[in-house]
Structures are given as structure tokens and as C-alpha cells.
Amino acid sequence: APVRPAEILRAIESLYLDRLRPYGRILRKRIGELAAASGRPSRDADLAAIEAACGACPHLCVQPEEGGEWSALLRAARDDFMDVYCTDDVYPQALWDALAAYFDGPEGRCLVLPGGRYAAAQVLRDRGVPFLAGRSLGELC
After folding, report:
1. What's phi and psi for 61, nearest 5 deg?
2. pLDDT confidence bin for 138, thresholds 50/70/90
3. Residue 71's CB: how many other CB atoms inside 10 A?
4. Which of 25, 35, 122, 139 has the fewest CB atoms within 10 Å, counting from its CB?
């Protein structure tokens, strides 16, 4: 069954809360995560079908992005996304020091993070690391 517009909007809104630009591939992943979290089977939705559904939704604006990627933005919302590709260090030294101490400590030494920034950020968020509390998933990416 195709992904319903309400599912797409809910996924996009959650990405906005996480300060992650809703690129097509991330949107597809989030749709699956939300389905699994609500007890529905997680399915690998067709990316072209999601893009078409986004384009047909009056609340969304589909924009082409670099590398053949696209994003679906809410027309009535302000963009406040973290630029995960920015090389500028916007974090305080205290955060880096706490992160280094964490990875050198007992919890961090045995921690194996998955490949990919998004999945690794989810693991760190889900572990409830105190010095990362209050940071969005976008900030952790």
C-alpha cells in the first residue's frame, strides 16, 4: 500500500523537530521508523512514490538538491536545519572534552557505533548521554 499523505507529513514534521532537512532518503527512513514505532510493519517505501506524493501535497514544496537528491519542505514553516555538511565547528570545547572522556570511559570504550551519521546520532541520543541532553538529532549528526 502506498504511504499516506498524513504519514509523510508526520515524518516531515518530526524531521523539522530534529532540525534535519527532510531529504528524500532521510524522509523514507523516518516514515519506516514511525511505522515501526506505532506497531505497524516497517516497509521500504518507494522513494519515487514518496516524492510524487510530496509534490501533490499542497502543504509541501519539493526542491531539487545536490547529487540528484530532493527535499520536501513545509510551506508554512521556517527552515532551521543543522547543516550536517558544514565543516565549521559550532560546538563548545567543553562538549568535545566531555565526548572524549565518554569515549575513553567504560561506556564509550565498548560502544560500537553504526556506520552513517544519522544512525550513529540515534544511538548516542538513545543512550541518554547527559552532556548531549537537549540537543536535536540534527545537532548530533
Report:
1. -125, 120
2. very high
3. 23
4. 25
